[in-house]
Amino acid sequence: MFKFEREQQIFNIAGVKVGGQPGQLPTVLIGSIFYHGHRIVVDQKKGDFDKEAAEELLNREKECSEATGNPRIVDICCSFPEAFSKFIDFVADNTDEPIAIDGTTENVRIAGAKYVHEVGLSERTVYNSINPHTREEELRVIRESGIKSAILLTLNVKKPTVLGRLEVLDGLLEKARIAGIQNILVDTTVLDIPDAGPVSRAIYLVKEKYGLPAGAGVHNAVDRWKSRTGLNRREFELASTVANTLAIAMGADFILYGPIESAPIAYFHCALADAYTAFSMRQEYGIRPIVSNHPMFKIFRKDRALRL
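The structure assignment produced for this chain is given below.
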């Protein structure tokens, strides 16, 4: 394993700590609910959904989080402004952890930001996301909403390389400053099927150069692979496991693991990667977990509650 030379920042987002040296904190896992095509959504535009099924998914993810020690942020996806309030209210009422507002367009994200401010949820909210194309109007709304946490998406389609991702980060940090963001999570952005490698390397470099929490939705690379070549379920699960754990081995502080239905598998393999990392860091550098419920203390227990 390795220790970053630069001091690593740790942010506390509504009780969830993210960042630090490898082995200090568990990887924060971010699963998505109400995403496009989610079977529990009856009407995306109106925001109608199966509340019983949604609550079951949230509770199952909570069980996984408690069993492994990996904190969670619930990513609330939405495609229509008028639906966001229903989605946000439900998740906020049925969870205690931070929520991420993940709109498909600027108008949807703006509606989400205004609503969380209106109902007093700004401190619990992570804005997903600010990217190089985010305009001044959206930044102004974020600032006025009082949201202090955001994911910065290092999207660089003209130069989709490791260095290309880093080249847009300074501009994103300026946008975050304008928006009043204090807790910064850098998403090193999947663009293509083989991107798990470059994305993981970019995570390492972001932490080494900036000391900021970094991670990615590495599952997106596997999703694209599956859609093109038809991976079977077993292949898909194994590929997702490799992609996520590769990112953690390179220092990832958070993983957007995809649909919330994948929680049992994602939490298990990410917790195991965390445990291996923490044990190695303790032996080599004397760096110990700074939380008592780290996966290193939970994943190997015989009475571990998580069952796949």
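Interim note for the steering committee: Residues 11-297 form a domain with the TIM Barrel fold (CATH 3.20.20.20). The mean pLDDT is 96.
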